[in-house]
Protein backbone atom coordinates (compact mmCIF):
# COMPACT_ATOMS: atom_id res chain seq x y z
CA UNK A 1 0.00 0.00 0.00
CA UNK A 2 1.13 3.52 -0.73
CA UNK A 3 -1.15 5.18 1.76
CA UNK A 4 -1.39 5.14 5.53
CA UNK A 5 -3.80 6.54 8.06
CA UNK A 6 -2.43 9.24 10.37
CA UNK A 7 -5.33 9.77 12.76
CA UNK A 8 -8.77 11.32 12.97
CA UNK A 9 -9.27 14.94 11.97
CA UNK A 10 -12.80 15.29 13.33
CA UNK A 11 -16.00 13.59 14.31
CA UNK A 12 -19.41 14.83 13.34
CA UNK A 13 -22.46 14.57 15.54
CA UNK A 14 -25.88 15.29 14.11
CA UNK A 15 -28.36 17.66 15.70
CA UNK A 16 -31.70 19.21 14.76
CA UNK A 17 -32.13 22.57 13.07
CA UNK A 18 -31.69 25.43 15.54
CA UNK A 19 -29.25 23.41 17.69
CA UNK A 20 -26.49 26.01 17.94
CA UNK A 21 -27.37 27.62 21.30
CA UNK A 22 -27.78 24.26 23.04
CA UNK A 23 -24.59 22.93 21.42
CA UNK A 24 -22.64 25.97 22.59
CA UNK A 25 -24.01 25.61 26.11
CA UNK A 26 -23.21 21.88 26.39
CA UNK A 27 -19.97 21.53 24.44
CA UNK A 28 -18.65 25.03 25.10
CA UNK A 29 -19.85 26.06 28.56
CA UNK A 30 -20.53 22.76 30.32
CA UNK A 31 -17.68 20.70 28.85
CA UNK A 32 -15.34 23.66 28.41
CA UNK A 33 -14.44 22.99 24.77
CA UNK A 34 -13.38 25.94 22.66
CA UNK A 35 -15.58 26.80 19.70
CA UNK A 36 -13.72 27.28 16.43
CA UNK A 37 -15.05 29.09 13.38
CA UNK A 38 -16.64 27.09 10.62
CA UNK A 39 -15.33 27.83 7.13
CA UNK A 40 -17.32 30.68 5.62
CA UNK A 41 -18.68 28.53 2.78
CA UNK A 42 -20.20 26.07 5.32
CA UNK A 43 -21.70 28.55 7.78
CA UNK A 44 -25.09 28.71 6.05
CA UNK A 45 -25.63 25.00 6.83
CA UNK A 46 -25.93 25.74 10.55
CA UNK A 47 -24.27 23.85 13.37
CA UNK A 48 -21.00 24.71 15.08
CA UNK A 49 -17.50 23.31 15.57
CA UNK A 50 -15.34 22.76 18.66
CA UNK A 51 -11.75 21.71 19.27
CA UNK A 52 -10.95 18.68 21.48
CA UNK A 53 -7.22 18.08 21.83
CA UNK A 54 -5.93 17.91 18.26
CA UNK A 55 -9.29 16.86 16.83
CA UNK A 56 -12.45 18.75 15.98
CA UNK A 57 -16.05 18.02 16.90
CA UNK A 58 -18.50 19.16 14.26
CA UNK A 59 -22.13 19.54 15.33
CA UNK A 60 -24.02 19.40 12.06
CA UNK A 61 -27.66 20.05 11.30
CA UNK A 62 -29.45 16.99 9.95
CA UNK A 63 -32.86 17.07 8.33
CA UNK A 64 -35.07 14.44 9.98
CA UNK A 65 -32.63 14.19 12.89
CA UNK A 66 -32.57 11.06 15.07
CA UNK A 67 -30.10 10.83 17.97
CA UNK A 68 -27.32 8.25 17.92
CA UNK A 69 -28.15 5.88 20.80
CA UNK A 70 -25.36 3.30 20.30
CA UNK A 71 -22.77 4.92 18.02
CA UNK A 72 -20.75 7.49 19.97
CA UNK A 73 -17.45 9.32 20.30
CA UNK A 74 -15.21 8.40 23.21
CA UNK A 75 -13.33 11.37 24.66
CA UNK A 76 -10.13 10.72 26.63
CA UNK A 77 -10.20 12.83 29.79
CA UNK A 78 -7.60 13.66 32.39
CA UNK A 79 -9.21 13.77 35.88
CA UNK A 80 -12.35 11.90 34.88
CA UNK A 81 -13.82 12.08 38.40
CA UNK A 82 -13.56 15.87 38.35
CA UNK A 83 -15.52 15.90 35.08
CA UNK A 84 -18.10 13.55 36.60
CA UNK A 85 -18.53 15.86 39.59
CA UNK A 86 -18.75 18.95 37.35
CA UNK A 87 -21.45 17.36 35.18
CA UNK A 88 -23.44 16.11 38.19
CA UNK A 89 -23.44 19.61 39.68
CA UNK A 90 -24.95 20.80 36.39
CA UNK A 91 -27.69 18.14 36.68
CA UNK A 92 -26.38 16.15 33.69
CA UNK A 93 -27.32 12.48 34.11
CA UNK A 94 -24.37 10.08 34.24
CA UNK A 95 -24.85 6.62 32.75
CA UNK A 96 -22.63 3.81 33.96
CA UNK A 97 -21.61 0.92 31.71
CA UNK A 98 -19.53 -2.19 32.40
CA UNK A 99 -15.86 -1.27 32.83
CA UNK A 100 -13.17 -1.91 30.24
CA UNK A 101 -9.85 -3.25 31.53
CA UNK A 102 -7.40 -0.44 32.17
CA UNK A 103 -9.99 2.32 31.84
CA UNK A 104 -12.58 4.18 33.90
CA UNK A 105 -15.53 5.49 31.92
CA UNK A 106 -19.06 6.83 31.92
CA UNK A 107 -21.59 8.11 29.41
CA UNK A 108 -23.91 11.09 29.08
CA UNK A 109 -26.38 12.24 26.45
CA UNK A 110 -25.77 15.55 24.75
CA UNK A 111 -28.73 17.99 24.57
CA UNK A 112 -29.91 16.23 21.40
CA UNK A 113 -29.83 12.69 22.82
CA UNK A 114 -26.54 11.62 21.22
CA UNK A 115 -24.53 9.21 23.36
CA UNK A 116 -21.13 10.55 24.52
CA UNK A 117 -18.46 8.51 26.33
CA UNK A 118 -15.75 9.94 28.58
CA UNK A 119 -12.86 7.70 29.61
CA UNK A 120 -9.56 7.82 31.41
CA UNK A 121 -6.77 5.26 31.12
CA UNK A 122 -5.57 3.88 34.44
CA UNK A 123 -1.87 3.99 35.29
The biggest beta sheet, please? 4 strands, mixed
Radius of gyration: 15 Å
Topology as a string of helices (H) and strands (E)? EHEEEEHEE
**Tally of individual helices:** 2
Termini distance?
36 Å
- How many extended strands? 7
Instruction: Give, in spatial order, the strands making up the sheet with the most strands.
Output: 1-4-3-2
Low-confidence segments:
none
Mean pLDDT equals 96
Fraction of helical residues: 10-25%
What does this structure look like?
The protein has 123 residues and is an alpha/beta fold. Helix content is 17%, strand content 31%. The chain has two helices and seven strands, in the order βαββββαββ. The chain has helices spanning 20-30, 80-89; strands at residues 10-15, 34-36, 48-52, 55-61, 74-76, 103-109, 115-121. The strands form two sheets. It has a four-stranded mixed beta sheet, with helices on one face. A hairpin with a 5-residue loop joins strand 6 (103-109) and strand 7 (115-121). The longest helix is centred in the first third of the chain and has 11 residues, at 20-30. It is globular and about 45 Å long. The termini are far apart. The model has no long low-confidence stretch (mean pLDDT 96).
Q: Keywords, please?
A:
7 strands, globular, 123 residues, alpha/beta, 3-stranded mixed β-sheet, 4-stranded mixed β-sheet, 2 helices
Q: What would a concise description of this structure say?
A:
With 123 residues, the chain is an alpha/beta fold.
